Amino acid sequence: MQNIMLKAIDNLAKFGLDKLERALLFGAALAVILALATGSIQMSQVWLTFLFRWLHVLAGIMWIGLLWYFNFVQIPSMPKIPDEQKPTISKVIAPAALFWFRWAALATVVTGLILAALNGYIFKALLLGYFQGGRDTYIGLGMWMGLIMSYNVWMIIWPNQQKVLGLVPAGDDEKKAAARTAMLTSRFNTMFSIPMLYFMVAAQNLG
What pTM, to 2 d.p., does this model score? Predict the structure, then answer.
């Protein structure tokens, strides 16, 4: 099985699978082909709602995945990296990761709000289901946590990271303070991501 898989991957490499954009294009094409073959694409309100749920999940995986990468991998690893190698992180890896991080956060929020509107519970959810429990309360709690986290990304983490990365002028003391603010806010978002994900899943399974 392993040999078959490796051979298939090697054959796909001939079509440029080593390039990320082609891997994503092939993945999207495969999803469409399989969806058409199984008849799961239907021009209906139900399918449109499903489409935005799928896009919401995809964006959310990118966002929370990068949030956890920063907190589980990059931040704890920085003190262990020799000083002469740290510019590789700050000049190359971090800016790219932060680009996808902040836009994934926005995409998650936008697709989530569209999904809530299509399902007809956006206002009830934002009002936490009038505190009566059930799906609207659960999804509302998840939505508010997600909105707060997204605000933190765009209004606190990203502006401070711009100073740390030298994208906007800042003195050494200001950079140090900005780095701490960005890190603590990222830690806050990591903390919030746990109950946020709980209530998002609870809304689908316990509501």
Answer: 0.90
